[in-house]
Amino acid sequence: MPTVWKLVDDMPRAVECETPGYPNRDADGETMNSNTYFATEADAWIYAVRDAEAHVFLAARDVKNLRSALVRAEREASDAAIHIAKVLEAHHKWKEAEGVA
User: Fold this and answer.
1) For the segment 72-101, what is each residue's pLDDT rounded down to a tens digit?
2) Nearest CA to 20 among 35, 9, 34, 8?
3) Is the Cβ–Cβ distance between 35 and 47 less than 8 Å?
4) Which residues neighbour 33 within 8 Å (Cβ) at sequence distance 6 or greater?
5) Rounded CA gap, 35 and 38, in Å?
6) Angle, vertex CA 25, rays to CA 20 and CA 26, nearest 5
7) Where are the domains of the chain?
8) CA distance 93 to 97
9) What is the CB neighbour count within 10 angstroms for residue 68?
10) Alpha carbon of 64 to those of 14, 50, 59: distances in Å?
11) Assessment of whether the complete model's pTM goes beyond 0.85
12) What are the b/e assignments for 21-56, b being 16+ CB within 10 Å?
């Protein structure tokens, strides 16, 4: 039986099959998709490493975007605090002028 390599938890593992390739099934009964089954262990490792690198890149991009969003939110919160202070001060002055308790 031919051997192909599949990714299991992002690690290459050898598995036998009758006929390599999609839509055939491996010895475990799973369909051999082109992005998770490979002809050689080297090809499987190349894909696994590139996929892991892509996850790191995407996570770093998300962190950068979230940091930017946090800076904006902090600025908006600061502006809102300044605004409420001005409103409350004006309200207090109005109450004093009107003699409202």
Assistant:
1) 999 999 999 999 999 999 999 999 999 987
2) 34
3) yes
4) 22
5) 8
6) 75
7) 3-98
8) 6
9) 10
10) 38, 21, 9
11) no
12) eeeeebeeeeebeeebbbeeeeebeebbeeeeeeee
